[in-house]
Design a protein that fits this description.
Beta Polymerase, domain 2, rod-shaped, single chain, disordered N terminus, 6-stranded mixed β-sheet, 9 helices, alpha+beta, 2 domains, Methane Monooxygenase Hydroxylase, Chain G, domain 1, 321 residues
């Protein structure tokens, strides 16, 4: 089974998935959709704090990192694209890391984590690559893979931004309301920023935590993670400002177009008003000037043409046309 088939198989299962990979003294346990029974057994084995288990069973709104004598507990959030909703959705991952173990807990939609786990499960060479340098390096690889996926999502949002920008500023194209597309794009950026903002602090704290799990020789690697988070944040900030400008421009264009339509309709209404009065006046059953004249019809039509010409000339003189 390929790693992608493995990921698909795990994602399609609704029950708890519990898998272990061992390389020398390091054990990586991956738990998908955990229940209390599984987490309680893990707690008893590794002596985890009960509050950490509660955090794993409930949805946390913000990323965090807690340090204990024998392990670190991390709550991280990463976005993924929900193809059914056509939106970015936030997914939580809980991580326990100790000297000779690492435990990842999630709901099975974080493809990068499952991809790395699948590689390690299917290949001894890959286990050596990811797990031979200790739990700290494996933690770096897991987070790095998810941040790389974040870059791909940034590119996806950036491409959408450029497409919408091109549509809004294309003066030759038929005008259509892009507000829904812009608002969806804004929601994706807001969701992404809500993930990255607290995570910047958590990632920055990693290199200063317990050196038993994250030795000094990994400092350069975790600096790389900090750099990726900051680049992601910088790109999101730029796209947020750009989308705000696009929305303002789009609203200005829509407002200008609406004003032009209203102006044209108003001109028609103003011109038609005296013509309606004139035709209504001659439609009364009373004696009127020229009603017996053989050219009465042409006189009325001529009067209407004169009125139209006079009003158009007045509008042109006032520069309303």
């Amino acid at each position: 089974m390929s790693r992608f088939a493995l990921a698909k198989h795990l994602m399609n299962e609704t029950k708890t998935q519990f898998e272990k990979i061992r390389f020398k003294d390091l054990v990586w346990t991956d738990i998908i959709s955990p229940n209390r029974e599984v987490l309680t057994s893990i707690q008893k084995k590794y002596k985890f704090h009960e509050l950490d288990i509660e955090d794993c069973l409930t949805e946390n709104q913000r990323s965090k990192i807690d340090e204990y004598d024998k392990y670190l507990f991390m709550v991280l959030h990463f976005p993924f694209f929900d193809s059914t909703k056509k939106l970015l959705v936030i997914q939580e991952i809980d991580i326990f890391i100790g000297q000779d173990f690492i435990i990842t807990i999630h709901d099975g939609v974080l493809r990068p984590v499952m991809d790395v786990f699948g590689k390690c499960m299917l290949s001894i060479k890959q286990r050596k690559r990811f797990m031979s340098n200790g739990s700290g390096f494996l933690l770096y690889e897991i987070i790095d893979s998810m941040l790389d996926e974040g870059f791909r999502l940034v590119d996806y949002i950036s491409n959408n931004t450029h497409v919408i920008e091109k549509s809004v500023f294309n003066v030759d194209a038929t005008r259509k309301d892009m507000l829904k597309d812009i608002l969806i794009l804004k929601k994706d950026i807001i969701t992404f920023r809500r993930v990255v903002s607290p995570q910047r602090t958590v990632i920055a704290q990693l290199e200063h935590k317990n050196k038993k799990f994250l030795p000094e020789n990994l400092e350069l690697y975790f600096d790389d993670l900090v750099d990726k988070v900051e680049k992601t944040w910088s790109n999101l900030e730029s796209m947020k400002d750009l989308v705000m400008s696009i929305q303002e421009t789009h609203e200005s264009i829509i407002s200008h177009t609406t004003n032009n339509v209203i102006k044209v309709l108003t001109i028609f209404s103003v011109i038609m008003l005296p013509l309606t009065v004139l035709t209504g006046f001659y439609g009364m059953n009373v004696s009127l000037p020229f009603e017996q004249h053989e050219a009465a019809y042409m006189i009325v039509i001529g009067g209407m043409i004169v009125i139209i010409g006079a009003m158009l000339g007045y509008f042109r003189w006032r520069k309303w046309l």
